[in-house]
C-alpha cells in the first residue's frame, strides 16, 4: 500500500453542473448545460432546484464515507461564479465553506479546482457552456478568473484541509478544441462565433500570472496545480526554466480518450495504453510532480458498445449494448482499477472521476455501464478498493 | 447469522417528509410538516423542491448499497396522496414504481407502509400534520385510506419484490395521543379541534376491513401487516379469534421511548429495557409473527443530553451535550446494535429507522449524536453490520 500517495475522488456534478451526472436537475427544460438552465426557469424555481441539488447531492455523509473507504483527498470543481457576483448564477461559497469543515472533521484534504471560466476555456458542457470557447480572448474575463483564484486563496490559505488550488480545468488546446467543436454544438452560434483553441503560449503566461498571485498568499506547503492542456509533453521548459515552489502538473487520462487515439476496445489494449501513459508520467514526474486529477473505470468494452469517446445517453441514443456476465464485469473493472492506480502512482497519485452519479441504470437501461463512473457505486460492487493499493 | 430473519431499513423522509430528516427542504419557510409546506411556496417552487428532493434523497445507488451492506428489505413509508389525487400534494407512485424495479434488480424486498392519513392518525409531524388527529372520526377519509390500500395492492400484488403491505403506521391510541398533544402543537388550533385518541376497537375493525380488501388481491405469500398501536398486549384475541392468513404484527421500539417510560439514561438500563421488550416479543410471537418495523441506535446517553423522548434540534435548542470519546461511542453503539437485533430476532426481524438523514453534525453542532439515526452513516462508522447478526 502506497501510504504517501494521493488517493482522491472528484466531487463532480455538485457545484459545477453536468447534465449527464444529475439529469433530473434539467427535467422539463431544453438546457444542456449550466449556462442555459436559469434561462428556462423562473428565478425562484431555479433557486429551488439549485439549492435542493446542492444540499442533497453531496453532504456530510459523503465526506464520512469517502474517508471511511480509504480515500484521503477530494478534488472539488468550482464555478467562476462561486462568489455570487455573476448573475443569474448562484454563488456557492457557503457550500465550499461547509465542505472545508467536513473535510477537517473527517481527515480529508481538499484540492480546489477552478473548473469553469466566463465564455468557457474549453466549450465542454462541464466548462459551463457547450460549444463556446472564447474566454482566453477576453482580457477582462481573464482578469476576472485571476481575481476568483485570489479570493479563493485568501479565504482558505490557512485551512488545514487545503491541499492546494488548481488554477484552471482542462483548457482546450488545438487538438482538443477541434474534437470539442464536433461534439458540442453551440446552442447559439452567434455566441460561439470567434471561439478558438487556447495556445500553450497563452497557458504558460496565464499559469505564471496565477502563480505570482497565489504563491504569496498560500503557505509553501499548499500546492499550486496546473492542468497540462491535454499534452504532457509541453511542460519541460516551463517547469525547469522557472523557479516554482510546490507546483504540480495535472493530467487527465480517460480510457475513452485512449480509444479515440486508437486503442482497441478490449482490456489488453487498455492495459497497454495505460502502461504507456504511466511511462510518460514517470518521465515527466522527474522534473515536476504529476497528478492524475481525472480518470475512471468507464470504457466502451464494459459498456458493451462503442461510445465514441464517451458520448452519453443525454446526447445520443445507444442501442444493443452487450452486457457482460456480472462476475466477468467485476473482474475487468478490478483489473482496470489496479492497472490505472499502479500507473498513476508513478506520479504522486490520483483523483477518480467521480464520487457520485444520479443516473438510473435500471429504469433507464440506456445508462447500462455508466455506473462505473461513480466511485461510490464501484465500492459497493467491490470493483475498487483504495485501501488495497 | 440468522439468514432467515428480515434485516430491513426504512427509507424514511423520502416520500413522506419529516423536517428533521431533511431540514433544507423546509428552508425559508415556517412549515414544520408536509401539510404546510405547499402553503408557503408557489406551485412551481413546491414542485421543484419536492421533485429534486425525491430524485436525490433515495436513488438506485441507495438500493445497491443497502443490498451490498447485507440488508434484505426496505420498508417504504408512503403518503395517503401517493396516487396524486389529493391536491396540492404531489403523487409519488412513479417513485414507488421505480423503487420496485431497483429492489428487483438488487434482490431486496419491499414492505409498503401507508404512513399517513388525511387529517392524520397520530398528530406527529411524520403523520403529515402536527397536532391534528381526526382521521378516524371521518368516515369518508377512512374509506379513502382503504381505497389507497386497495390500489397499492392491485398495482404491486404480483411483484417479486413485494414483501407485504402495512395498512397504517403508528395510530395513536390513548397513551401516545396524550403524549403527542404536549409535544406537537397544532399550527391552526381550529383544524385540530376534535382530535382524539384512536381506540383499539376502531383499530380492530379497521384492520379487519383492510385485511378483507387486501387478502383477495395479494397472493398468500405476501404479508399483511398491522402496527400494534403502541401496545403489544392488546392483540391476543384479535389474532387468535380471527382466521387470518399470513399476517404480521409490527411494533416500534425506541430507546428514547424506554427512557420516557422510566429507563435510566445509560447502556445497562437500555439493555435491561430491550431485553424486557424482547421477552414480550417472544411471547406475542407465539400467536402472531412480530416484526420490529422501527428502532434505532439514537439515545440520550450517546447524544450526551436528555432529549426528553427524542425532541430534535428543529423543535428545541439543546446546549451543553457531553461528547463521548469516539472509541467509547463506537463501543456503546455496537453493543446497542447487538442487544437490539438479538431481541428483534426473537420475532421475525426488523427494519432500522432510518437509512439516510440529511443533517449536518459538523456545521450545525446541535445535531451531534443524531447521526446515529442513519444506518448509512452507522455502517461507515462500523457501529453496525447486518452481516454479523
From TrEMBL, chains A, B:
Give GO terms for biological process. Answer: cell wall organization; glucan catabolic process
| Keyword line | Cell wall biogenesis/degradation, Glycosidase, Hydrolase, Secreted, Signal
Question: Could you confirm whether the keyword Hydrolase appears in this record?
Answer: yes
Q: Which family does it belong to?
A: Belongs to the glycosyl hydrolase 5 (cellulase A) family.
Name one molecular function that GO assigns to this entry.
glucan exo-1,3-beta-glucosidase activity
Positions of transmembrane segments: none
Q: Where in the cell is it found?
A: Secreted
Q: What is this protein called?
A: glucan 1,3-beta-glucosidase
Q: What is its EC number?
A: 3.2.1.58
